[in-house]
Design brief:
The protein is mostly helical. Helices cover 48% and strands 0% of the residues. It contains 6 helices and no strands.
Length: 120
Amino acid sequence: MEDNDLPEYRQSIFHQLFEHAADIDCKLLLLDEILAIGDIKELPLLDWLMTSEHPEIRKKALDVKKAFCEKLGILSKNKEKRLPMDLCFLYDEFNIRPSKIDKDLNMDFEVTLDIFNPDI
């Protein structure tokens, strides 16, 4: 039974296992198991573990989250905002240069209201 009053990271079945793990090596093994058998509910736990005081756990949680998101087909927030690196070299690859705008060119596209006057 799911308790919605708990923080999201505590709703993972792996959270209790992490609390009772004897040492860091056991916790690192649990992170491998999250990748193997975990589901979407493990993401808040992985976010929480990325703030751990142990650098090994932080690094492993980050690596597992990346692989886990790829496995589930979820884009991370940072990845959604980034463009592929290939686009950076598009101008050079196709020898394309942006057009230059002549600042002296004075184009006035304003239409006078005379066209609405039926008397003409």
